[in-house]
Amino acid sequence: MPRFFIIAITAAFALGCTIAQHITWNAAPYIAYSVVGLAVAVLLLQKREKAMLVCVCGIIVLLGIMRVLLPMKNQDISITEQYKKQVHIEGVIKGDIEDKNTKSRYTVVIHKINNEVVEEKKILVYEPYPSRCVSGEEVSFEAKLSEAEDFMTNAGRVFAYKRYLQQMGISAISYIQESGCVGQRKQYAIFERMRTHFVKAMHTFLPTKEATLLGGLLLGLRGTLPADLMEAFRATGLIHIIVLSGHNITLIAEGVRKILRKTPTTVSFTVSLAVIVLFVLFAGAQMAAIRAGSMAVIALVARATHREYDGIRALTFVALAMMVYNPAQVLFSTAFHLSFLATLGLLLFSESIEKKMKKIPQKYEMRSIVAATLATHILLFPYLAYAIGEISVVGIPANILVLPIIPVAMLFGAATTLIATIAPPVATIVSPIAYLPLKLITAITEILARVPHATLPLPEIGVFVTLIVTATLIYIGYQQSQGKKEERENEN
């Protein structure tokens, strides 16, 4: 499949999914007529490639709109009207269990309400962190159902929460104190038990603050992070390091590959791949972790084979597949956006940055690691400015100082945690190796967060401005990668 074509149809599908957020199912007949019209145009314009491509992209845009609207067709959200009082619910947890500040959040497919069998409906459940249940487990609890409400984000933007949940087929939300876990774990049970043991192990050999930071780096667990530390990460522009994304995993896998560069290629690649798998298992092998691991694998293969542009095509194809499977998880997922942009930045800019950083010693592959760290953030800065609504004055120095430490903290933290689950006394002895980089991260973050006016509010930046800036940076990186590709071809 031509490289440009897959990029074009992915962008068109994303545009269609975005447009669908602002229209209703009533537009479906007009969309169907338009698809037929464009299909006829494609047949008539077969000899005019550019015009045909425009028509094909038009069809893809319309298909993206329909992909979002279809789940909302005939969707009955009157469950909140039918059950206005507290009810007894029985169902099964579907998908990931996410940790949001002090609460765990997950989707439950309802089978019974007040012991009466009902047509399967999905609700979103919030309960105090951490949840005792696991993905795929049957649960029962007392709850009052309510409709979701749109809310204002920290950036001062209105998030269409109700429509977001409708698109995912969720009929209502519920806040509970505790759910009853029946115990019939249908999927990922071994991974969930592993994650539970890992979290407990972290707290046996590390102080609370460093243990929770390691949980954020490895597992994306933010529920137990102290509020002051969370605010420090936000003020220094480092909040992204505790979001489970392909960025963190990519950094450490790339670092391992570089350190082992003198070994046979198969050895360095295999070890790096094993590291990615390890972190996916650490995160419970849930969808978010698998998604992040997939991004990291793409970056690893592309960098190891010096075929960054082919990596871009693979990355784009994965993004398209994810959108087709679940548009909401792509359009509204901060973790996905961070994974995609960080991986793309690594593929586009890492090699060029490394060649310009000759003053940084290559010993222990420090130059390569720093270059990879900076490359992943070129595309992240405009997105973070848009999503957060403010810019950190100390963000650049904070990232330069902290990000090279992240792979070390993750690698030693993961290794020590693994030792702690097998031989706790040994972990106590080697724990300083894991503690020091974590303590250094928190110390740097807290010191820089105390700088006067560390953050500056930004005027509301629209999504189109963000897209234009990001697209310009991608174009520049694409031109550079094309030039490097042609240089290598000429050398061969």
Please characterize this protein's 3D structure.
By secondary structure, this protein is an alpha+beta fold. Helix 2 (28-44) runs antiparallel to helix 3 (49-69). The strands form three sheets. The protein has a six-stranded mixed beta sheet. The longest helix is centred in the last third of the chain and has 29 residues, at 463-491. It has 20 helices and ten strands. The protein is 62% helix and 13% strand. Strand 1 and strand 2 (103-113) form a beta hairpin. It has helices spanning 3-19, 28-44, 49-69, 79-82, 161-167, 189-205, 208-219, 227-235, 246-259, 265-282, 287-304, 308-325, 327-331, 334-356, 366-378, 380-388, 395-402, 405-422, 424-449, 463-491; strands at 87-100, 103-113, 116-128, 138-143, 151-152, 158-159, 170-175, 180-181, 390-392, 455-457.
Outline the secondary-structure elements:
Layout: H1 3-19, H2 28-44, H3 49-69, H4 79-82, E1 87-100, E2 103-113, E3 116-128, E4 138-143, E5 151-152, E6 158-159, H5 161-167, E7 170-175, E8 180-181, H6 189-205, H7 208-219, H8 227-235, H9 246-259, H10 265-282, H11 287-304, H12 308-325, H13 327-331, H14 334-356, H15 366-378, H16 380-388, E9 390-392, H17 395-402, H18 405-422, H19 424-449, E10 455-457, H20 463-491
Parallel strand pairs: 3-7
Antiparallel strand pairs: 1-2, 1-4, 2-3, 4-8, 5-6, 9-10
